[in-house]
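Sample A.
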Amino acid sequence: MAKPLMAKATAVWLVDNTTISFKQIADFVGLHELEVQGIADGDVAAGVKGFDPIANNQLTQEEIDAAEKNPLHKLKLKFNAAAVGEEKRRGPRYTPLSKRQDRPASILWLVKFHPELSDAQISKLVGTTKPTIQAIRERTHWNIANIQPVDPVALGLTKQSELDAAVQKAAAKKAAEGEVMTDDERRKLVSTEQSLDMDPEPKIPSAIGGLESFTLMGDDDDDEEEDNLVDADSLFNLPKDGGDNEDEQP
């Protein structure tokens, strides 16, 4: 809910000129109830001049009367038709002069590692213009040969949470359009905190590549190998005592 101008001075005026409860005043001006009680006791806002919300077009007398009659009534700001449509215009964020020279490096990093982000999203993240983004995408930027991609979070141009939210939004839009993401694109959707907690994927060393289907010999091969074994006794079949001996003389 919108709060009145000069909240503490308005609270001082309401305490001095009405019988509205401390809680009603606190809810209206956005202060703590004990702080409003301190204003009434003279311990808080000493010397602060009251700010008349009726004269300054923030409250009506009827609203004050209703609050005095009903302790549960919540004060509401007077509707100001002139303030309609005066919301702050949202556009590319302001980038300090000291960091503007880093924007091309951050744009190149976003274009390279997050191609799913639109020009509008990149412009909002790092505070740049669409022609600059397009020039870096097409590598027609005047200084493209000297630009190295750098994470905009590391440069302080955006927050990690904002980058993660933009990537998630771009992924959802891509999925809604029916496009299938690759494994590399899907990994980029994981936040930094999650990726740091994940276990590394097991990889097979290249030296033993191709051995995934290797299996030991079956039982049938073992039986065949046992059949081919030679009996050790047959190799040393010496004649028994009393047998024929070719070397003996008659």
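Sample B.
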Amino acid sequence: MRDGAPVSTPPRVLPPNDPRQYDDLAGEWWRPDGAFAMLHWLARARAALVPPAPRPAALLVDLGCGAGLLAPHLAGKGYRHLGVDLTQSALDQAAAHGVTVVNADATAVPLADGCADVVAAGELLEHVPDWRRAVAEACRLLRPGGLLVLDTLNDTALCRLLAVRIGERLPTVPRGIHDPRLFVDARALVGECARHGVQLRLRGIRPELGGAVAWLLRRLRASRVGTGPTAGPGGTEPRIVPTWSTAVLYQGHGVRSG
């Protein structure tokens, strides 16, 4: 207190990729114009790789599920959706969207071997200090014939430039949300999955340029007048589309043998 005026507490400064950031950003998960808007776009693209459930009560394990953004895109596909995450504030929101939640580390999941028909690992591996252990867990959880679906950031100079040096300077991306030292080399990921019986197929992906630019401009205009945009024209959000290069953002899917 100074001269009778309250002293405001500055926001805490955390190291890059610190999980406590997700508690600080807990109110952003389900805002279409919020800090995690792109995760909504990616969740839709990831769910498009998931086929209808192959049997009654099939299980989909969603590693790094956050607040359950995958859930709306799985509706009607017939899976029991189980989400695993370290952040309890995110899991509380996932549970409110119909996800069965487990508070655990993606490198040590308290579930049985071969329990899952599908394992999804969306925007997870680039946040895990030991991504190889997370891959081993994802493959362990899959039954033979089960499907692994993932997306992550590549360990390239171009990715570090676009995702961190440029991306985290945009007003819609949280500063320090990534540690580029954890980005995942695409060839190494394919090799690691193969060691655990999953032949992973990769493709590069990116936001559709026109929709993403239009969304960003609406977001910037809205921030100046204190309102938020809807997801996009007619209520739609920018789409994630395939691209020829895996150098920045890439998607993978593969079936476990055996």
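B remarks: The chain has one domain: 20-253. The two ends are 67 Å apart (CA to CA).
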